[in-house]
C-alpha cells in the first residue's frame, strides 16, 4: 500500500452502524511511500497508522 503526503486514508467501519474514518496523510514513516503513516483525522486527532485490509488510500488528484 503506497501513499504520498496529502492522500486520504479511509478506515472503513467494521460493524454495522460504524462510520468510516477519513484522515489526511501528513507524513510517510516507511520507505518508498510504504506504511506506517502519520494521519490527521477529521476530528483533529493525529496518529500513526499501519493500514489493514479494511483501509484504502485515496490518492490526491495531480495538479494541472
TrEMBL record:
Domain DUF1918: 1-57
Chain segments carrying region Disordered: 43-64
InterPro entries linked: DUF1918 (IPR015035)
Protein's UniProt name: DUF1918 domain-containing protein
Leader sequence residues: none
Bias (Basic and acidic residues): 55-64
Pfam families noted in UniProt: DUF1918 (PF08940)
